[in-house]
Design brief:
heterodimer; A: alpha/beta; five-stranded mixed β-sheet; 15 helices
């Protein structure tokens, strides 16, 4: 066997050292060399946020990170019972209400931050061009004066309100609100879209044709960003009236605001002790609704993967994310972005 | 390590082109398409309104008479009346009538479209070679692939539901019309030709009547397939029994889904009986004559 030339051995040793040393420096920053698991939910905004967190943790803090697939209820259940995955960046608390309450009692999962600055927004939306053309249409209470605006070929001369798909929680609320506003007497019909896909396609059809539409939707979503939808204002949220709106047998529905959706960055409590720096970042992990909607719309337009949307966000909105982390961490993430 | 397939073309650009083209069609022809199919919607609504407007016992009687005239069996006729009555008792009357209207319109249009195409296929082998793969595609393409684009083109509701139902339900009509006419005994055709019939006489008085049992089987299958589409059609706003099933599934209300599902089964049995009886009568008629 030929002896290895000294220079080569030396170079290899340097390479090993070079590779190892930043690893060690970063590990102290991360606080733990355990693998941090992040739940990637099935929809685009949640998976994008998972990849944003993953990039910041691995490139900025040097943590070992793993993305694991999940969905609201299964992930919440697994966090409650096994403290795994460790981070769920977009957990809709209302969807997993009972599990969330149990986890709070047990104390092994906490809410690090509200992921969306304005919370999850549900309501009735109109395209921005309709809002501009009709300044008198600002709130849901103004709808009654504008049935003619939302007339359609197939709606028999009535204004059409695209309601919520059957079986979703919002279906009952929308139906009751329709009744509370007396829209039926003001020549409106409540059209049930039958499915989320159909609702999306109906909005897409109208928006690409620049025709008016008023429809139930929720945000932040790609649809809101892509078609530039504006939420009709609602009166302030009153819990008592709202509870009646969620009841299919509500005797006398009253108009009130939609309950703001609580969407949490859910984190298992042990991460706080193990990796305080990471916990500090997660406590500031909040995205403005319009920014995330716009990013999702970009993703939809370019049929981009969640990783690509995350990268696009990191490149184009440093103003948002650099506020979450110390300057040194932000620099490392930026440096890594430039390398790619 | 397995080698991944090379990127020969940029699929993203291709997809963007297709999406862009589709959007262009929606922007420029969306309204025209919706208006073009308005008469069909009116027909469907008229049928539905009529069925709902008629007193329930009148509809019940109508169906009973229809079954009796087809089967000459009091038993079948009573069973059909009993099933319709059960639908009413279960509170599904209006939803069932909406479904019947959708199904009848779809079947009617499928027959109007399928019969001429089937006849044309039976007369020209070239037409047959072209049509068979088209029919295969229509029957195997996942419904959602064209369902949601139909909504973009025609607006949500009954029109896209009806069109999707027809796409799905018309192939058996076409296939069996073609098959029925091709199966007519060659000697019979030779005999009538030797008597000097015109091609039109041959088609209308010999081939179609002799192929009638097979054509009826085609109509029967079309009806059944149209009925099986009602749940999916309700996902784009068609209403009816399918909507009740959908609501039941989405809300995890097993009872609601089950009852409405049972309603669909009843309708299937009723229409199957009617179509089959007519088919059998047509057959018997032929045997008596020949």
């Amino acid at each position: 066997m030929r002896p290895l030339p000294h220079a080569l051995v030396g170079a290899a040793a340097v390479a090993v050292l070079l590779a190892a040393s930043p690893q060690q420096a970063k590990a102290t920053e991360c606080g733990t060399d355990e693998t941090i698991t992040i739940a990637e939910m099935t929809w685009l905004s949640a998976s994008t946020l998972a990849y944003i967190a993953e990039t910041i943790l691995s490139d900025g803090y040097g943590c070992n990170v793993e993305i694991v697939p999940g969905d609201t209820v299964p992930t919440a259940t697994s966090m409650l019972s096994k403290s795994e995955p460790m981070i769920a960046p977009e957990l809709w608390v209302s969807t997993a209400e009972s599990i969330w309450v149990k986890a709070q009692e047990k104390g092994n999962v906490y809410k690090a931050a509200d992921i969306f600055a304005d919370g999850g927004q549900e309501g009735w939306w109109i395209p921005a061009y309709v809002a501009e053309a009709n300044p008198s249409l600002k709130a849901i209470t103004d709808l009654a004066d504008h049935p003619e605006l939302f007339e359609e070929v197939a709606s028999d001369g009535k204004g059409r309100l695209y309601g919520c798909p059957p079986g979703w929680g919002c279906e009952i609320i929308t139906n009751n609100l329709f009744q509370a506003l007396g829209l039926e007497d003001h020549n409106f019909e409540l059209f049930s879209p039958g499915s989320g896909a159909n609702l999306k396609a109906s909005i897409a059809r109208k928006a690409t044709r620049k025709e008016p539409i008023v429809a139930y939707y929720w945000g932040p979503t790609d649809v809101i960003g892509k078609y530039d939808l504006v939420r009709l204002e609602m009166p302030a949220y009153e819990p008592e009236k709202f509870i009646c709106l969620t009841d299919p047998d509500c005797a006398d529905p009253q108009v009130t605001g939609w309950k703001p959706g609580e969407v949490a960055v859910a984190v298992v409590s042990e991460l706080r002790e193990k990796a305080p720096n990471v916990a500090a970042f997660l406590s500031k992990f909040t995205v403005p609704n319009e920014v995330i909607s716009a990013e999702l719309a970009w993703g939809d337009d370019n049929s981009a993967s969640p990783e690509e949307v995350a990268e696009h966000f990191l490149r184009n909105h440093p103003d948002v994310w650099t506020a979450w982390v110390p300057a040194a961490v932000a620099e490392r993430v930026k440096a890594k972005l430039q390398q790619d | 390590m397995a080698e991944s397939f090379p990127d020969l073309i940029d699929t993203r650009a291709l997809r963007k082109t297709i999406d862009g083209g589709f959007e262009w069609v929606v922007v420029n022809f969306g309204e025209t398409l919706e208006i073009t199919f308005l008469p069909v919607l009116r027909l469907l609504n008229a049928i539905e309104d009529l069925l709902v407007w008629l007193p329930w016992f009148a509809v019940l009687g109508l169906f009973a008479v229809l079954v009796y005239s087809a089967s000459r069996s009091w038993k079948a006729s009573t069973a059909v009346a009993a099933m319709l009555f059960t639908l009413g008792v279960l509170g599904l009357w209006e939803a069932a009538m909406a479904t019947v209207a959708l199904m009848l319109t779809a079947t009617l249009l499928a027959v109007l479209i399928g019969l001429p195409i089937g006849i044309a296929m039976s007369r020209s082998d070239r037409m047959r070679t072209v049509m068979l793969p088209v029919l295969d595609v229509m029957q195997t393409l996942p419904i959602f692939v064209y369902l949601i684009p139909f909504v973009m083109l025609f607006g949500p509701g009954k029109i896209p539901a009806l069109l999707a139902t027809i796409v799905f339900a018309v192939p058996p009509m076409i296939r069996l019309t073609d098959l029925g006419i091709r199966q007519v005994d060659g000697e019979v055709i030779e005999a009538v030709t030797s008597f000097g019939v015109t091609p039109r006489q041959r088609l209308l008085s010999v081939q179609i009547p002799l192929a009638l049992p097979t054509i009826m089987a085609g109509i029967n299958q079309t009806t059944m397939m149209a009925l099986s589409m009602v749940v999916i059609a309700s996902m784009i706003g068609a209403g009816g029994l399918g909507y009740q099933v959908l609501q039941g599934i989405q809300r995890l209300e097993v009872s609601r889904g089950l009852i409405a599902g049972l309603g669909i089964v009843f309708l299937a049995i009723i229409f199957d009986r009617i179509a089959q009886s007519y088919g059998r009568r047509a057959q018997r008629h032929l045997h008596l004559d020949s």
